[in-house]
Design goal:
Elements lengths: L2 H21 L1 H4 L5 H35 L4 H21 L2 E2 L6 E2 L5 H10 L1
Antiparallel strand pairs: 1-2
Amino acid sequence: MSFTLMTALGFFIIFAMSTLGSAVVYFFKDKENKKAHTLFLGFASGIMIAASVWSLLLPAMEEAQSTFGNLSWLPVSVGFVLGGLFLVLLDKVIPHVHSGTNQEEGPNVSAKNLQNCFLQL
């Protein structure tokens, strides 16, 4: 099998599985099943954590090996923690509404001003 055909097949498999996985939403869109919602969120977060470890953190540690030696975990850990703190900061600074509970978070901004900000984008 040629390299081009293998590449096309690989992209098709990824496309097909992503499409099938996202199509599951249509089976649950009209139901208010909290357990299924929690299960799907947990599954999605597990996949994202696995993807970040194997596709980002481990390759970063391999790259840092030449510069930091046995301490190659240090820059990766610092970057990971700083990234997490940055996301917490964004959560506190950017006004937003949680979809499930309609709970507002972030600085107090009137809904009209917030809507105007989005309209300008």
